[in-house]
Description:
Helix content: 55-70%
Keywords: Ion transport, Membrane, Potassium, Potassium transport, Transmembrane, Transmembrane helix, Transport
Subcellular location: Cell membrane; Membrane
GO cellular component, one term: plasma membrane
Structural class: alpha/beta
Transmembrane segments: 65-86, 155-177, 197-213, 220-241, 270-289, 301-322, 342-372, 425-446, 453-473, 479-496
Domain K+ potassium transporter integral membrane: 28-518
Strand order of the largest sheet: 5-6-4-3-7-8
Amino acid sequence: xxxxxxxxxxxxxxxxxxxxxxxxxxxxxxxxxxxxxxxxxxxxxxxxxxxxxxxxxxxxxxxxxxxxxxxxxxxxxxxxxxxxxxxxxxxxxxxxxxxxxxxxxxxxxxxxxxxxxxxxxxxxxxxxxxxxxxxxxxxxxxxxxxxxxxxxxxxxxxxxxxxxxxxxxxxxxxxxxxxxxxxxxxxxxxxxxxxxxxxxxxxxxxxxxxxxxxxxxxxxxxxxxxxxxxxxxxxxxxxxxxxxxxxxxxxxxxxxxxxxxxxxxxxxxxxxxxxxxxxxxxxxxxxxxxxxxxxxxxxxxxxxxxxxxxxxxxxxxxxxxxxxxxxxxxxxxxxxxxxxxxxxxxxxxxxxxxxxxxxxxxxxxxxxxxxxxxxxxxxxxxxxxxxxxxxxxxxxxxxxxxxxxxxxxxxxxxxxxxxxxxxxxxxxxxxxxxxxxxxxxxxxxxxxxxxxxxxxxxxxxxxxxxxxxxxxxxxxxxxxxxxxxxxxxxxxxxxxxxxxxxxxxxxxxxxxxxxxxxxxxxxxxxxxxxxxxxxxxxxxxxxxxxxxxxxxxxxxxxxxxxxxxxxxxxxxxxxxxxxxxxxxxxxxxxxxxxxxxxxxxxxxxxxxxxxxxxxxxxxxxxxxxxxxxxxxxxxxxxxxxxxxxxxxxxxxxxxxxxxxxxxxxxxxxxxxxxxxxxxxxxxxxxxxxxxxxxxxxxxxxxxxxxxxxxx
Length: 711
């Protein structure tokens, strides 16, 4: 198979490419440096500073510093390398990674669909493949548990939303701590510079980062990889230099014995300081979440052979410097830089902070897009910033919201140590969610033995719980920030999902019989007018109540009527040839059809370009392939007449009929439900993007029908 430059530019993001050449893997590995590893590679700016920010600073002798480096090395090796690179990256969903990819796998294999309009035909999609049908005793037991306890499915959804919201919290804290840490280095050369000016400069850089998002990352992506490469080479070279110059004995700290000595000598203070150590692996979740833009092999190659050794050398060199310069513990990174190269490294560090910020901001856009597709977030405007690279999107509302939150944290805290405490809690929470979901995936999807699953949980879960407990201790010192952010986002997501499901249940319970509407036609003076009417609905079967409300008040509808259901399926992508599912509604003489338009959760619909023509073509193809009971000649003639009638209706004009429904809680509902539906959900529905905007419906052809849903 010949690989075109366009293919390399797009990345190997789906299941389309099974084998790749060595050159393509290396090309993608190089590109991934500028997209995936920006967050991970800027951690040396603040890890040691945050770790020694508490009472542990009183124990600044070689044993403590050696112990901290030993913890960093083994945490980086066990969590980043073994867990994520060797295990978690293999749990992709048709090439996609992240929390929602794991949840999507579980939903398909364990039948845990959160989408109310799921159909059996969705399981025949090429991307819905579920592997071998064989079941183990453990996988059957877990599936049975979820089937018998519906509340456990809801709890799993809340658990996934918690991890997702913590990941969004990362996108607030990463730009803040990266930029503030990078800029604060200038105080070493200009000591008289007031802290307020450092904060102002950081805020200006943050505003600039968020202001250029609308241009798309592809316009500046060409400089991202060289910046990350230059940064990693710089800090690793300085690390080797510092190791040789200050303390070559630091190599002995690779032994895990130093971790035991560290905890034995520092006790509770050492345990509390581990919240700073865990910052060394910030960005590993981004590595998994951005799997869809690259191949798993290219990410493994880049991390194992370049990123991992570079960062270990950087941490080792800084520890060697600290062992001989205890007084510089709170400004160790920039103090460890040799004088002749200080300013070049400072400039590269600032750019690296921008690259790291870009990575998590882009990841947040993808997360919000997935949440919207799965009815877990209010509708927002999604703009594709690249016509070539899949998945590069920009969401204005989310972008400016993140900017305001970043500025608020920067101005409000001003202290990278407090921001680091908050950051650590967010990172460990996401890692714990991934570990738990991976245990389910190993049981249900991979059909692993219970011993293997327990070994995975005990090995990695215990390490992450140790770090999580340390971060929980820091809640009063900044750890409350990600908790507040995640609870706020989780409330928004859960209430939106709850309100959407309740509206769908109302539609299902109040479906209208088309035969009844047709039968009422003469009594209410119903007529059929020329043209095609597209009635948008969330139902995949039956006629929505809003259409019955429409025809009883305006007893006329179009000669050709199509009920259009645009829905998401719990797969990342759907091929264009599988997107439309056409069926008839009622007898052929009714001239009514149903079109289910399917998208994956990573399949953000672009502008509905030429949607009318594509829909009409799909209907005509359905008619031509539809089996008939008439004789062959008359059947062919009937099909031609029907196709001609559809083309004439299209030329007469296409009208879009949308239901503008308003949900209200029933009088008998609890106070909490009334607050959620009548206040919060109503506010979000009023202020989010309208359905017509999301679907790009032309306003000149739009007809909205208002209706109140009592849920």
